[in-house]
Amino acid sequence: MADSDWLAAEFEVHRDHLRAVAYRLLGSMTDADDAVQDTWLRLTGADASEVENLGGWLTTVVARVSLNMLRSRRYRQEQPVGDSWPGAAEAAGAGAVAGTGGTAVGRARDPEEEVVLADSVGLALLVVLGTLTPAERLAFVLHDTFAMPFTEVAAVLGRSTEATRQLASRARRRVRGAPSPDRAADLARQREVTTAFLTAARGGDLSALVALLDSDVTLTADAAAAPSGKPTQLRGSEMVSLGARAASARAGQSQLALVDGVVGIVFAPAGRLQVVLVLTVSAARRITAIDVIADPDRLRRLRLAMLPS
User: Is domain 183-306 annotated with CATH 3.10.450.50?
Assistant: First the structure.
């Protein structure tokens, strides 16, 4: 086997792990794949014969690449749309929260319930990770989620081991405090209702839209989002559902996203962010308010992380 073939085969052995690390650091599968590809390019330009632990070397490189990407992001909405959750990252995220008191223990769950729980807890963790600084996020993810020693994490960050411990400790306190079981369940409810709303809007299903809306629901659109060019408000399930059905073509190109920590909808054709919908979902699984945002200044201030539909 040629050296290049051997190197490619060895890289494939570690690819899923590298994607999981990059996804937890970046919160976007597209960004994670870019980081993994960059890692491969760096490997091909290095002398692999001098690398004693290829897996550790690759993890360090993908972490550094991801850290640079986190630091270079000017706006959160520039994160590309993700297409799937990598299994390793999803399991690691759920485990990290479960280990810090995020889930109830002591009772058996059926397989379907476990999948729902892992998904919602992973979503809650993603919200919290998005509030950390790049250095805090890297220290927590690499050490607490992927068991990298602090000495190696410190080398990635270019900081002392003690300073890196403190970064991870601060991040750990944030993670322990935020994604409670109630928070995870709330996110799962938001995602369920928002998915149903987007599906109904795509199909122009008026009855399905009405069924998802509270009778007193309000839809508020800023001047950039309203056809009239002026801020607009619709009230009542019938008016709002008609407005949603009228936007069915746009819905076909929209995707789910975390918007400032809640599940919403993003319209970003060709990766260019144009419209964001922020939905308020009640405990009764009804949409009580929709905020339609298209003003560029407002869009720039949003924190976004794209989710699979």
Answer: yes
B/e letters for 239-268, b = 16+ CB within 10 Å, e = fewer, are ebbebbbebeebbeebbbbbbebbbbbbbb
Amino acid at 31: D
DSSP annotation of 36: H
pLDDT per residue over 227-267, tens digit each?
A: 889 999 999 999 999 888 888 888 888 988 888 878 899 99
Residues near 169 by beta carbon (within 8 Å), at least 6 away in sequence: none
232 and 285 in contact (C-beta within 8 Å)? no
Length of the chain: 309
Dump pLDDT digits (tens) for 144-194.
888 999 999 999 999 999 999 999 999 888 777 654 566 677 888 999 999
**Residue (of 82, 77, 99) closest to 22 by Cα position:** 82
- Give me 261's structure tokens: 């920590």
Please state, in angstroms and rounded to a whole number, the distance separating the CA atoms of residues 146 and 47: 26
CATH 3.10.450.50 in the chain, residue ranges: 183-306
Enumerate long-range contacts of 289-294, CB under 8 Å, 24 or more apart: 289/217, 289/218, 289/219, 289/220, 290/217, 290/218, 290/219, 290/220, 290/240, 291/220, 292/219, 292/220, 292/221, 292/222, 292/225, 292/226, 293/222, 293/225, 294/221, 294/222, 294/224, 294/225
Q: How many CA atoms lie within 13 A of 297 on its CB side?
A: 2
Record the pTM. Answer: 0.54
Q: What pLDDT does residue 106 have?
A: 33
CB 11 within 8 A of CB 43: yes
